[in-house]
Each structure stands twice: as C-alpha cells, then as structure tokens.
Specification:
Layout (H helix, E strand, L loop, with lengths): L5 H26 L4 E2 L2 H7 L5 H6 L1 E4 L11 H6 L12 E4 L2 E4 L5 H17 L1 H15 L6 H15 L6 H10 L4
Parallel strand pairs: 2-4
Antiparallel strand pairs: 1-2, 3-4
Helix pairs in contact: 1-6, 5-6, 5-7, 5-8
Length: 180
C-alpha cells in the first residue's frame, strides 16, 4: 500500500472528484429501479441513531455479485499500488441514498452504509467525491480514507455501545474538525 504526498492527494481530489461524482450519480440512477425501502423493523432499530428523513429516503438493492463496474480512476489507483477493492465484490457500497449489497443487510452494515448516506447529505455529492478521492490517495487506499474510517468508527459504536448517539452530530464533528 503506497501513500502519496498530501498536495498530490488534494490535487487528485480536485481533478478526479468530478469524474467520480458523475460515476456515483450514474450508478445510483442505474440501480434505482431495482431498489426497495429499508424494512420497517430495521428503521425502528436504527431510529436511535439516524433521522427519519434518512431512514425513509434510503433505498436498498440486493444482488450478488453487485452489478457495479470499477470507477474510472481504478487503473490509476492500481498503477500507484493503492488498495482498491472491486466494487462488485464488496459487501456493500453506497451511492448517495442507495445502498447496493450482496446479501440481506444486517443492522451493523446498515449503520455503516447509512453513515455514508449522512455524509453525502451533509457534504454534497461533489465534496464527498472530492474527499473520497483525496482520502484514497493520501491514505494509501480504501482503509485509509477518512470517510470510511468515520463510518467504521460509527459502526463500532453502534455494535459496542448500548446508548443512542446521533450520527448527524458525530459526522458534523468530523466535518467541523476538518477530519475528512
């Protein structure tokens, strides 16, 4: 796993972010006809952490393997030896407010992916894409992306803590602390 200098990662985010944003929007639109709402039982269990607005608007597509092509920046990521998992083989992937998953979505996985739904809403598609690309380059691959690290941290809190917490507020702290 390689990392690139911060200024190169920032430039990659600015230059490649719009291309990735178009890819995200296109995948969302392509998969939308297959999507279904989150189950009422899942909404009930996740309501302590997510707004009704996000729980009601999120849609789920379940198919294995995922019918998702690699993003257009993948050849560059591979050339730089960055860790880039195949989207069609990932457990799940979120495109704005649509979660594509290979298996029935568990509450733990739903928490992780819904955290991305909140990130998209708070940051906007263009900024999310820019930060995701920058994080890929600066962090040395998928596991170094701050947007992913945030979602994994919230997922772990969901699993380990019995007390409710507000995902919007937690992601807001990451944004205001410039942690993405």
């Amino acid at each position: 796993m390689s990392k690139v200098p911060r200024w190169v990662a920032g430039t990659a985010g600015v230059v490649l972010g719009p291309l990735v944003a178009r890819y995200i929007a296109a995948q969302r639109e392509r998969l939308a006809p297959l999507a279904k709402p989150l189950s009422e039982i899942s909404k009930l269990r996740l309501r302590q952490h997510f707004s009704d607005h996000d729980l009601d608007r999120v849609r789920i597509v379940q198919v294995d393997p995922l019918p998702i092509p690699n993003p257009p920046i993948y050849p560059l990521l591979r050339l730089l030896n960055l860790d880039a998992p195949e989207p069609r083989l990932t457990e799940a992937i979120t495109f704005i407010d649509l979660i594509a998953t290979r298996q029935p979505i568990s509450l733990q996985l739903a928490c992780h992916e819904l955290s991305h739904v909140v990130q998209y809403r708070l940051l906007g598609l263009d900024r999310f894409a820019q930060l995701y690309v920058r994080g890929f380059f600066e962090g040395g691959g998928y596991h170094g992306i701050p947007l992913e690290r945030c979602a994994y941290a919230l997922e772990q809190r969901f699993v380990l803590e019995k007390q409710p917490f507000d995902v919007d507020a937690e992601i807001g702290k990451w944004i205001s602390g410039d942690l993405f």
